[in-house]
Specification:
The chain is of the alpha/beta class. Helices cover 49% and strands 16% of the residues. An 8-stranded mixed beta sheet has the order 7-5-6-4-1-2-3-8, sandwiched between helices. The two termini are 37 Å apart. Bound molecules: uridine-5'-diphosphate (UDP) and magnesium ion (MG). Residues 8-10, 12, 41, 69, 71-72, 75, 92-94, 96, 202-204 line the site of uridine-5'-diphosphate.
């Protein structure tokens, strides 16, 4: 049995060697044969150089280095393509995903689970972040078809058939959290205490998080479009009732001229609603635009491996409507 460990790294020079040491020690203790697939996501620091040094002394180290920063989703995809293991563990390079938990994942894998998910608790997080996360998951689970769970991230073990299934999903906009859930198979979750980042800093800014959240909302189905339609229908009915009332009043009492404020409020509110709806439609069009271009998810600048699953060139299978 071979275990692959996929590690996306973006500007992780400060911690990478320590991470590698801790992980290899832990894996040696656990015993299975393993390989490490590091993906350098276009780091501007010495990350690639460190990976090359590690690969020179340790034949279990594979690295793939991107031509620029393509984002963690692309890095995970590259890692999965290059991983040869019977099971693959995806983890962060910043030691926020404790290597000690890999053993537990392997136990669950041996019990027959296809996805073993480590779910972090939110201890140590800022209150604002916890609250927004709660609200977000409440909302998103009403809008998407798959169940997304707060605290569940990319730290997980995937069986070979799960990895193969994920690689079948060739969409350009990759929202892994949703993709993992979409794939399914036998899944189990356990909790771990969140570790605070030791070195470097999180690349997640508020703007990035917001966009990530929107991606999640929009990348799974057309329910936001449907919601926009419903809202439009609701507003139309309100407007019709209001119009009938105004006409009625005019017929009974004659025409009154005031109403400037009401008019202004209605016009601006409707304009706002229309802009939002247009934005939602635009988002979907934008997504279609990216998908039809069929650009690669990433470009490789340097690597010591040639084992990537072949780029899929076949046409997507016919669309199946749910
Ligand atoms: N990462 C990446 N590309 C990016 C941003 C992050 O490969 O554009 C990697 C990063 O090196 C780390 C993991 O993804 O291994 C998680 O990133 P980070 O710690 O910044 O995110 P957080 O822990 O705050 O969710
Ligand atoms: Mg982190």
């Amino acid at each position: 049995m071979l275990i692959s460990l996929v590690v996306p790294c973006f500007d992780e020079e400060e911690i990478l060697e320590r991470f590698h040491e801790r992980l290899t020690e832990e894996m040696a203790r656990l015993g299975p044969e393993f390989q490490l697939v590091y993906v350098d996501d276009g780091s501007a620091d010495r990350t690639l150089a460190i990976l090359q040094e590690l690969a020179a002394v340790d034949p279990r180290v594979r690295y793939v280095s991107f031509s620029r920063n393509f984002g963690k989703e692309a890095a995970m995809l590259a890692g999965l393509r290059h991983a040869e293991g019977d099971a693959v563990v995806i983890m962060d390079a910043d030691l926020q995903h404790p290597p000690e938990l890999v053993g537990r994942m392997l136990d669950e894998y041996e019990r027959g689970h296809d996805q073993v998910i480590a779910r972090r608790t939110r201890t140590g997080d800022r209150v604002t972040r916890t609250v927004t996360a709660r609200a977000y998951y409440w909302l998103i689970n009403r809008l998407v078809d798959v169940e997304l769970v707060d605290g569940v991230g990319d730290f997980r073990l995937l069986s070979r058939r799960t990895v193969d299934a994920l690689l079948e999903l060739t969409e350009y906009n990759r929202f892994s959290k949703g993709l993992f859930a979409w794939v399914g198979f036998r899944t189990t979750t356990f909790e771990y205490e969140n570790a605070v980042r030791e070195q470097g800093r999180s690349a997640w800014t508020f703007g990035k998080l917001l966009n990530y959240g929107l991606d999640g909302l929009l990348s799974f189905n057309n329910k936001p479009l449907r919601a926009a339609l419903h809202l439009g229908m609701l507003l139309l009915s309100v407007a019709l009732v209001h119009a009938a009332w105004i006409v009625g009043v005019a017929l009974v009492k004659g025409v009154e001229t005031p109403g400037y404020v009401t008019l202004l409020v209605v016009v601006t509110a409707l304009a706002g609603v229309q802009m939002v709806m247009l934005g939602v439609v635009g988002e979907y069009v934008g997504r279609i635009y990216y998908e039809v271009k069929r650009r690669p998810h990433f470009l490789v600048k340097a690597t010591n491996t040639t084992t990537a699953a072949p780029h899929r060139t076949r046409e997507p299978q016919e669309f199946v409507r749910r």
